[in-house]
């Protein structure tokens, strides 16, 4: 596996889920396959779960790990080609990327949407520069448009907790004070459809996701109607995708907060969120603290999804 952005990169998804189950039960079964191999984890943005779980996954495989916070201690990087570099950016990504590639065997990249230009964000320019110029296999640790390690962990979690073969999964928009990327909802929708689940996406008008990701889901502006009979409720905020409002916060309507009253509409659904979460904006205290909340096991499964992905990348090196 040379890149990891989409479920198709894993090939047979059921096979990948079985591998995840095996690795979870035998976490150190492959603790020598990464010997003398180095994972470089590059963060252009803050992270808690991705940083720790991916590092742990690499250690499970016996890999060496280098973590670089680009914004702390590295030279400030220019990403645009053709710019006269007379400002505060000392190094161009086009030199930095192959240099970074020379110190490692696989590269993980965390970079968010900038919300300056939709085409620019959706071209995944920074991630693509790593794919094209690093000479190494590259995986997204959340990039401008996708968060596949999160979605794979979400899928593992649902498989572990589902009570029917084809559960009803509801992805619901919820309010947040700041503009957030569409990466998590894009990937969640893409992976749930790929898994063959019954997916409904609920959001206020104006928050339609890119159809490349939401195709195959049922879409509604009525959250209460969506929640009827749901087996899993996945809450997430995202900023508007459609022009001319790309990257904007169009609503902070607290009636979309996932509360006990909302959960009462469901089929005793489990609650999910990728974290970090703003309590009493996205979800009320009582819902996230309830026995039906899966946010902690979901986060713990990030180690498993990352171990599967890194294992496959390391196996493909030899
Ligand atoms: N869910 C997730 O990616 O968390 P972090 O931003 O803390 O890595």
Keywords for this entry:
318 residues, binds phosphoric acid mono(formamide)ester, 5-stranded parallel beta sheet, alpha/beta, 12 helices
What is the helix/strand order?
A: EHEHEEEHEHHEHEHEHEHEHEHH
Number of strands: 12
Which radius of gyration do the C-alpha atoms yield?
20 Å
Supply the number of helical segments: 12
Low-confidence stretches: none
Distance between the termini: 11 Å
In the sheet with the most strands, the strands line up as 1-7-6-2-3
Give the overall average pLDDT: 97
Class of secondary structure makeup? alpha/beta
Q: What gross morphology would you assign? A: globular
Share in β-strands? 15-25%
Largest sheet: 5 strands, parallel
**Helix share of residues?**
25-40%
Quaternary status of these chains? single chain
Spell out which ligands are present: phosphoric acid mono(formamide)ester
Structure notes:
By secondary structure, the chain is α/β, with parallel strands linked by helices. The protein contains twelve helices and twelve strands. It has helices at about 15-25, 50-60, 95-100, 120, 125-135, 150-160, 185-195, 210-215, 225, 260-265, 285-290, 295-315, and strands spanning about 5, 40-45, 65-70, 75-80, 90, 105-110, 140, 170-175, 200, 220, 230-235, 270. A five-stranded parallel β-sheet has the order 1-7-6-2-3, sandwiched between helices. The chain has a five-stranded parallel β-sheet with strand order 10-9-8-11-12. The protein is globular, with a radius of gyration of 20 Å. Bound molecules: phosphoric acid mono(formamide)ester.
